[in-house]
């Protein structure tokens, strides 16, 4: 497990899995340790995954200043990882909340990102939050599932503020609710830094107008991957995020939720590897 030091002196950890050309991976949560990503459904058979534990999560140290958990401040940690890995330019994959960090990084360091993959990313950095209506519409797609009748009222209550998180509605975040998904969900509570999550998107973290402008000039290819059953982002919202980039494509994985590498690993890996093998656009 390689370790390196952030610009403010915080020791950070990166987990390497697989062989081949590096693919830098940013976890979501926000502020969830990278362990939940596993090997991304077998993607490590094609690329060497470099999974960053964001500060205060997993094997990375807790920083002296909690304000550095803010998303825009974490950009410096990603740049420190690139330097540590000795990469002039890197292919970058980010999941969920990590996608906002990846977008902020690409906006600040566009020439350091060769290709960008955004997996089930809520585009907070672009000023596109998921609405309760989006989540409920996606949840309604699951009405024929055996667990729906019990789970939907709890999910609706959590969104309207009349109830809190209830494990009973965890199936809404997975395209296929089985023993594997249940085990994955059960590990989640141990992997989160709740204090850091509160800071991640706090005031000042995002400047959507500036980010949109910068990413509108981003020259690298971008893959925005959504799950057809995901409640955040919905495929339509993922498509609007893709439109911000000059060279982006949208892929919607059938039957997938928020963790698509668990729902259909073969489809996920095939689509990601195909994108990463595409030739880079010729500079104008």
Which sheet architecture does the biggest sheet show?
A: 8 strands, mixed
Low-confidence stretches: none
CATH topology of the largest domain: Rossmann fold
CATH architecture of the largest domain, please?
A: 3-Layer(aba) Sandwich
Write the CATH homologous superfamily of the largest domain. Answer: Alpha/Beta hydrolase fold, catalytic domain
Structure in a nutshell:
The chain has 284 residues and is of the alpha/beta class.
Question: What does this protein structure show overall?
Answer:
Helix content is 36%, strand content 16%. By secondary structure, it is of the alpha/beta class. Strand 5, helix 2 and strand 6 (113-119) form a beta-alpha-beta unit. The model has no long low-confidence stretch (mean pLDDT 96). It has two domains: 3-127 and 189-277, Rossmann fold (3-Layer(aba) Sandwich), CATH 3.40.50.1820; 131-173, no CATH class. The chain is built from ten helices and eight strands.
What is the topological layout?
Layout: E1 3-5, E2 11-17, E3 22-26, E4 48-53, H1 71-85, E5 90-95, H2 98-108, E6 113-119, H3 132-140, H4 148-160, H5 179-191, H6 194-200, H7 208-215, E7 222-227, H8 235-242, E8 248-253, H9 260-263, H10 265-277
Parallel strand pairs: 3-4, 3-5, 5-6, 6-7, 7-8
Antiparallel strand pairs: 1-2, 2-4
């Amino acid at each position: 497990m390689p370790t390196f030091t952030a610009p403010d002196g915080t020791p950070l950890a990166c987990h390497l899995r697989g062989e081949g050309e590096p693919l830098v991976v940013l976890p979501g949560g926000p502020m969830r340790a990278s362990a939940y990503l596993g090997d991304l459904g077998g993607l490590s058979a094609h690329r060497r995954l470099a999974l960053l534990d964001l500060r205060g999560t997993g094997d990375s140290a807790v920083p002296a200043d909690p304000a550095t958990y803010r998303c825009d401040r974490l950009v410096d940690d990603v740049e420190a990882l690139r330097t540590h890995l000795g990469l002039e330019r890197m292919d970058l994959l980010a999941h969920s909340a990590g996608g906002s960090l990846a977008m902020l990084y690409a906006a600040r360091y566009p020439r350091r990102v060769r290709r960008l993959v955004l997996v089930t990313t809520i585009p907070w950095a672009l000023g596109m939050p998921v609405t309760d209506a989006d989540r409920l519409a996606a949840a309604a797609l699951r009405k024929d599932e055996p667990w729906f009748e019990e789970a939907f009222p709890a999910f609706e209550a959590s969104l309207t503020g009349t109830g809190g998180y209830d494990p009973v509605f965890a199936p809404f975040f997975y395209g296929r609710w089985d023993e594997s998904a249940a085990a994955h969900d059960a590990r989640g509570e141990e992997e989160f830094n709740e204090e850091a999550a509160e800071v991640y998107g706090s005031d000042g973290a995002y400047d959507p107008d500036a980010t949109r402008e910068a990413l509108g000039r981003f020259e690298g290819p971008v893959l925005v991957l959504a799950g057809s059953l995901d409640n955040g982002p919905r495929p339509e919202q993922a498509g609007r995020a893709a439109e911000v980039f000059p060279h982006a494509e949208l892929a919607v994985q059938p039957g997938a939720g928020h963790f698509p590498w668990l729902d259909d690993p073969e489809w996920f890996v095939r689509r990601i590897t195909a994108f990463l093998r595409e030739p880079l656009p010729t500079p104008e």
